[in-house]
Amino acid sequence: MKELYDQVSLNCSKLVTRSYSTSFSLGIRFLDKKYHYAIYAIYGFVRAADEIVDTFHDYPKAELLQRFKDDLYQALEDRISANPLLNSFQMAVHKYHIESELIDTFFHSMEMDLQRQEYDLDKYREYIKGSAEVVGLMCLRVFCEGDHEQYAQLKEPAMKLGSAFQKINFLRDIKSDYQTLGRSYFPEVDLDQFDVTCKEAIQKDIAKDFEAGYQGIKKLPKGARFGVYVAYVYYKSLLSKIGKTPPEIILTKRIRIPNPQKYLLFLRSYFQHTLNLI
Predict the structure, then answer these.
(1) CATH for the stretch 2-274
(2) In 3D, which of 256, 230, 261 has the Cα closest to residue 242?
(3) What gap in Å lies between CA 5 and CA 17, rounded to an integer?
(4) Is the whole-model pTM more than 0.70?
(5) 276 falls in which pLDDT band (50, 70, 90)?
């Protein structure tokens, strides 16, 4: 009956993904089906850790994160966990040979979020590496299916794409991060003096990451290319909307792409993909 429990675990990861992220869920649907549950497993794992540090304000976050971390390492050793999210993630780790270094680096960034701090350039890069770049590499391990040469070729673009996505999230969530969580990720940026010049500098930095990431998308395995491209199109549209929004508005509301517009973006992406315009 272990097979039934494993399937239930994977379904739990899928439920978490669909509950927390409409955009990411739609992107997964455009991947080849053979990748679906592993990517759901990765998202479910990172989302659970992220929720601990971001939303469990009335609970002992540090203790809960440490317990979650210990439980994962035990699950990796035992190849099973009573926590269905960790059970599905350990299956993906073992099947696709996801390195422990990526997991360790991810947890390091989550631990950084437990304390209020101002980020200098080194800490900023360190945080993004663990919170976004290594998650991109976990997904890349799945897409490459053991092809180490392909993984090495696409590693840098995958990290750049993950970095771009995370920096856009920082801009989108700048109000809640700063006012609710007391975080200011962008180095050498005084959010009390956040202006057009600051915003444009951040957008220019993201554009460089996007270009490098896009070059990698074109070289992804066919079954993964369209799903990742959909995520790229969504985030690029979000960045464009943020670019048209005055800094003072960004500081007071979360910028979003309405669901009807998302579906139009995905439809346009589909036609570009089918016409080999990617």
Answers:
(1) 1.10.600.10
(2) 256
(3) 19
(4) yes
(5) low
